[in-house]
Amino acid sequence: MTMLKIDNLSISYGAIEAVKDVSFEVREGEVVSLIGANGAGKTSILRTISGLVRPKSGKIEFLGQEIQKSPARKIVASGLSQVPEGRHVFSGLTVLENLEMGAFLNNNREENQKNLKMVFDRFPRLEERKNQDAATLSGGEQQMLAMGRALMSKPKLLLLDEPSMGLAPIFIQEIFDIIQDIQKQGTTVLLIEQNANKALSIADRGYVLETGKVVLTGTGQELLASDEVRKAYLGG
Ligand code: ATP
Questions:
Q1: Distance 12 CA to ligand 1 centre (A)
Q2: Whether residue 43 has its Cβ less than 6 Å from ligand 1
C-alpha cells in the first residue's frame, strides 16, 4: 500500500526554485532513501511534507489524504513525524522533558508512559541519562534523543533528515542499525542523507536528486551498483 505519494512537487523561495516537479512514493513498511548533494533540495522536500514549508505546486498524499495545505500540527497528529537536520534538542530541558515534548499532542498519560518505555527500551542510554540536560549529550546521543522524541508520537511514517551528519563512524553505524530496527518494529521510514553508501545499503528503494530533480530511482542495491551513483556519490 502507498503510504506517502508526492506528485509533481515544486518548491520556491522567492525567485529561487529549489525543487522542480519531483514525484516519488513511499510504501507501507519500506525504508526509502532520498540522496543528493548539498543544495539538491532534500531538506526542502521533508519540510514541505511536514507542513513547515508550503509548496509552489504539486500534491502530497499521506494515507490517502491530501496534506499539502494542512497545518503541521494536524500532519503530526495523522501519524507523520520528522527528525530535523541538526537534531535540535531543547537545551535547558532534561532528556526526559525533551521526550515528553514529543508527546505533546497526546493527553493519554497511560499511552505516553507506554511509548516512553518503548523509547527507553530502544535507547537504553537515554534512560540512563534521563535527568541530564539534553545539551550536554554527545552528538550521537542527541541524534538518539531526537529520534526518540519523534517516536513518542508513535508515527506511522518517520522522516529523518541527515541522521548521520557530523557523527563519529561508530555512532553512524549504530544510528543506521537503529533505523533498520525501527523499520522491523513496523514504522515506515523516509530517510534523506548525504551518506549515500549507508543510506542505500539499508533502503528498500531510493531516489537520487540533483538540483531539485529526481534523476534516478531503483532499489537500494540497484542504485548502489549503478555507475552514475558510484561516480557521483560513492567516490568510485
Ligand atoms: P543539504 O544537504 O546541504 O542540507 P538539501 O539537499 O537539503 O541540502 P535544501 O536545504 O532543501 O537542500 O536547499 C535547496 C535549495 O533551496 C538551496 O539552493 C538552498 O539555498 C535553497 N533554500 C533552502 N531554504 C531556503 C530558504 N529558507 N530561503 C531561501 N532559499 C532556501
A1: 10
A2: yes
Residues in contact with 10: Cβ distance below 8 Å, sequence separation at least 6, in sequence order:
17, 19, 20, 21, 22, 55, 56, 57, 58
DSSP 68-120: TTS-HHHHHHTTEEEE-TT----TTSBHHHHHHHTTTT---HHHHHHHHHHHH
Report which residue type is found at 48: T
pTM over 0.90: yes
What DSSP state is assigned to residue 154? -
Q: In testing the pocket of ligand 1, which one of 33, 43, 82 has its CB within 8 Å of the most ligand atoms?
A: 43
CA–CA gap between residue 233 and residue 95 (Å, rounded): 35
Question: What is the distance in A from the centroid of ligand 1 to the CA of 119?
Answer: 31
Instruction: Determine how many CB atoms are found less than 10 A away from the CB of residue 14.
Output: 5
Distance of alpha carbon 124 from alpha carbon 223, whole angstroms: 34
39 touches ligand 1 (CB under 6 Å): yes
Query: Is the CB–ligand 1 distance for residue 13 below 6 Å?
Result: yes
- Tens of pLDDT, residue by residue over 80-116, are 999 988 778 899 999 999 999 988 777 788 888 999 9
What's the gap in Å between 149 CA and the centre of ligand 1?
Answer: 25
Q: Is 54 strand, coil or helix?
A: coil
